[in-house]
Amino acid sequence: MFNRDRWKEILEVLTKNWFRTLLTAFGVFWGILILIILLAAGKGLENGIKQDFSGVATNTMFMWTRSTTMAYEGLPEGRSFEFKLSDVQLIRNNVPQLRIVSPRNGLRQTPGIDNVFYGTESGSYRVFGDYPEIIFQNSMYTNQGRFLNENDIREKRKVVVIGDGIRKDLFKKGEDVLGSYLKIQGVNFMVVGTYKEKSNNGDGENSERQIYVPFTTFSQAFNRADNVGWMAITAKDGSSITQLSDKILATVKQSRKVHPDDERAVGFFDLYKQYNRVETLFSAMRWIAIIVGTLVLISGVIGISNIMLIVVKERTKEIGIRRALGENPWSIKKQILMESIFLTIISGMTGIIVGSLFIYGINAILDSVGPVDMFLNPSVSIGVVTVALTILIVSGLLAGFIPAQSAIKVRPIDALRTE
Amino acid sequence: MIEIKDLHKSYKMGSNSLHVLKGINFSAEEGELVAIMGSSGSGKSTLLNILGMLDGADSGEYNLDNVPIRDLNETKAAQYRNKFLGFIFQSFNLINYKSALENVALPLYYQKVNRKVRQEKALKYLEQVGLKDWATHLPSELSGGQKQRVAIARAMAAEPKVLLADEPTGALDSTTSYEVMDLIQKINDAGNTILVVTHEEDIAHMCKRIVHLKDGVIVEDKKIEQVRAAQYV
Questions:
Q1: pTM of the prediction?
Q2: Domain B29-57+73-232: CATH class, spelled out
Q3: A416–chain B nearest CA distance, Å
Q4: Angle between helices B144-157 and B115-128 (to 10 degrees)
């Protein structure tokens, strides 16, 4: 394998007609380049879309009440109802595969009418009563102070965590936010923390303009008794919320005396299903990239095979001479195979390198231009490169196989006879 | 050294069969210099090809240095060719992208001789044929006579038992031909067995024995007084 004379010969043969070699190599180079760029573009799109999901527990469904559309157990249709706190425990008991069940109440936001006041500043924001677990279900993190905790819930503390957007709206630059008081619909709350969104594009700005109040405090302050307006339910890893949703809906329908077949009484949104849809889309895209890239690559490989056949034909006499001098057939076969693999790998590696540089360039441009919606950090993994290299070696072997076979079929006497 | 008994060979040409060798009996001792003569179609090249294991016989026996040569697969044939035989062709058959030295070293490469020894030996044989200074030249930079001398050096390099020359002077003018024959005679003087296929009378008479082939049989086999090529050079 690492035989100086053999390598010298490979180089001699390939450089003898360098323009032809270059054109042939270009086929494989082009194939692998397209494969890499397609895969990277797919990955970039995937990264961009997935960023919207980043930090969100995707195995999650949201559920809220609407009005009934069917009469049931003496109750009329068109009745509005609300979940109760007891339903939360009921769901936990009935469906043990759940990780988090977060009940939530919210203040209805009236456009144009400010509901939050700080000193002389004011604004209209969404205000939620939430349990601390909500931070595991949303894509947010506290950047100042702390988030809500169990003590806040138990002692019904009048504290809030506000979005960084609200801090920018209501507070002066450098002003101390923590410990200050906000008046929300006439009730004073102390700010104990601010949060930021993990994803920075899309509606990130908007979701940084929300206020989180401890659930129990909220119920008491705004008179919600034991009602629950909305729930975020996350399943444990290994079980899918999509499969559990029927059981969850049945549980609340039963306890709220809603007809089991009343599809519209309880609204819900299955994030997992949406996420899976996106996942499926991307795996389809990945496959398309692989198939298209491989097909282009194959045409390059066929080009190599073709040229190797011509090379063998041209060298018929030489092969005859060498066999007359006593080179064994296997050595000739190896020579042709190695030429083919060498050519394939060199051109393939060039393709991979140029492709990587191209992706690097795109990334540099993206970095300097700033985030582009739905496209982020296109890249190919080492795994993909390894697979591509393997494909190259195998296809180099295949490309060389037929020519090598035809080379050892040359009988020395016939070869020497061709003048 | 060479022993052939009742050798037959025919070629199929479509539905016809062409009987080229019709029972050849021939033997050559070590150190002989034999000319095989005959008009075209007499079967002399076929005989040489069979002797060179480039082609197989249909029937008959062939012993080379007491080794029976039969039922060879290609790998075995390649091995035997490398070990027992040196070829000299009419059209030189040098590999045109390799230097003279590399061409000469080629049979040694197939014997897996290491690079350094290979180069030394090849250089030694190039010196013997008087082309040491041309070692790094490509065949395209050499004259016909020089090419044939490189080819002879190459045939010698593996130190074979028998040299087979197929019209070694066929592509050369007479002066150069005599130079090449002079070289062949010198190699023979050193004790090497050489078979020369030729149709030129003067070349044949520079050998020690002439075998005449006609229509696939040996019609004449005589020892002759050797004409030294040196006197013409």
A1: 0.69
A2: alpha beta
A3: 8
A4: 130
